[in-house]
Automatic annotation (TrEMBL):
Listed EC numbers: 2.7.13.3
Catalytic activity: ATP + protein L-histidine = ADP + protein N-phospho-L-histidine
Domain Histidine kinase: 120-339
Gene3D superfamilies linked: 1.10.287.130, Histidine kinase-like ATPase, C-terminal domain (3.30.565.10)
Organism: Sphingomonas sediminicola
Record's protein name: histidine kinase
One term of GO molecular function: ATP binding
Pfam families: HATPase_c (PF02518), HisKA (PF00512)
UniProt xrefs under SMART domains: HATPase_c, HisKA
Annotated keywords: ATP-binding, Kinase, Nucleotide-binding, Phosphoprotein, Transferase, Two-component regulatory system
InterPro entries associated with the record: BphY/WalK/GraS-like, HATPase_C_sf, HATPase_dom, His_kinase_dom, HisK_dim/P_dom, HisK_dim/P_sf, Sig_transdc_His_kin-like_C
Length: 343
């Protein structure tokens, strides 16, 4: 049976596609679906395809002719500056070509993130490694010339840099473990109050050194959360350390927990310099720091908050950072209550 598509059927067909689709004949757009009009402009039908899809390789393929079967072309430059597309083009017969635009922006962004991550991780390790090599070379080549005190100072630097590399590697391992477990939601009923006590106890020395009081406000009768004990302790450790590290010395840090809509709401509040809005959404990126040299000098790897974010996601919880420059920062973590703990 010979089946020819008339205009009505063609229109129904491309309107049924979820991705942006146009039909091109000659060099004009002869038909488009709603997604394409949304993306490329309402009035694209009848317009020269060179104006609608300004991508040289794609245009060339559409206009040159000789298309015998479906082809795919990667394209960018339309529909938004950061968008990447896979254009699937297919001849429909009598010179008409169907163009479907598959959104590849997310895949491209994920790929870019992976590339950046490897570059950043290498850089984070290369810097202390260079220091380590420099100092050990000096120690080896000038053994007889350096006095005991200088040698001791150099060795202390070597040790500190090696420790920094160890921290980076440990944090990276921790991050990849958490990511590997991403799809197994923790179910153990964990007493958050007890974990807060443990975290506060281990941050006590740092708090004393900075003259900061650590205040706890736990709502009485708080139900247990569905959690991985070790990972929640990691969250608490990082957030309390951040609050102390970036808080103003001498000002208190407050940790509180209360029940809200079947979730336990944990807050860590500091009175520090705060974080400017443009940085806040980027803080959970790996190695992102507002002031890299400052964080480094305080022993930070810049991985803490990305670990926190991954842990909270694994727990089906929520992380939000609220901050006002000059006043301080509040980090909110919402964690689901353990099953069967609410009456
Ligand atoms: N409470 C806070 N107040 C102000 N700035 C903060 C606060 N918490 C985090 N930051 C900023 O966010 C950055 C990232 O924090 P994150 O915990 O990921 O890394 P870090 O503390 O530098 O290192 P790490 O946690 O790996 O030891 C910090 O370098 C700091 O600039
Ligand atoms: Mg940190």
């Amino acid at each position: 049976m010979i089946f020819t598509l008339n205009r009505d059927k063609s229109r129904k067909l491309i309107e049924g596609l979820t991705e942006a689709a146009i039909i091109v004949r000659g060099a004009s757009v002869v038909m488009s679906n709603a997604a394409a009009r949304n993306l490329l402009g309402i009035g694209i039908e009848g317009v020269d395809v060179r104006q609608v899809l300004p991508h040289p390789a794609l245009i060339e393929r559409l206009v040159r002719g000789g298309l015998t079967g479906p082809e795919e072309i990667e394209a960018a430059g339309f529909g938004g500056s950061r968008r990447h597309w896979l254009a699937r083009i297919a001849p429909l017969g009598d010179g008409a070509i169907l163009v479907r635009l598959i959104d590849r922006s997310e895949a491209r962004a994920a790929e870019q993130m992976r590339v950046d991550f490897v570059a950043n991780a290498s850089h984070e390790l290369r810097t202390p490694l260079a220091t380590l090599i420099g100092y050990t070379e000096t120690l080896r080549e000038h053994t007889g010339e350096l006095d005991g005190e200088t040698q001791g100072r150099f060795l202390a630097i070597v040790h500190e840099e090696a420790r920094r590399m160890q921290r980076v590697v440990e944090d990276l391992i921790s991050l990849s473990r958490i990511e590997a477990e991403k799809f197994t939601t923790p179910t153990e009923a964990v007493d958050l109050e007890q974990l807060i006590e443990v975290a506060v106890e281990s941050a006590k020395r740092m708090a004393d050194e900075r003259g900061s009081a650590l205040l706890c406000k736990i709502e009485p009768g708080l139900p247990p959360v569905a959690a991985d004990r070790v990972q929640i302790l990691q969250v608490l450790d990082n957030l309390i350390t951040n609050a102390l590290r970036y808080g103003e010395p001498g000002t208190p840090v407050e940790v509180s927990a209360s029940l809200e809509d079947e979730m336990v709401h944990l807050r860590i509040v500091d009175q520090g310099e705060g974080i400017a809005p443009e940085h806040i959404q980027r803080l959970t990126e790996r190695f992102y720091r507002v002031d890299t040299s400052r964080s480094r000098s305080l022993g930070g790897t810049g991985l803490g908050l990305s670990i926190v974010k991954h842990i909270v996601e694994r727990h089906r919880g929520r992380l939000t950072i609220e901050s006002e420059v000059g006043k301080g920062t509040t980090v909110h973590v919402l964690l689901p209550v353990a099953a069967g703990s609410l009456s």
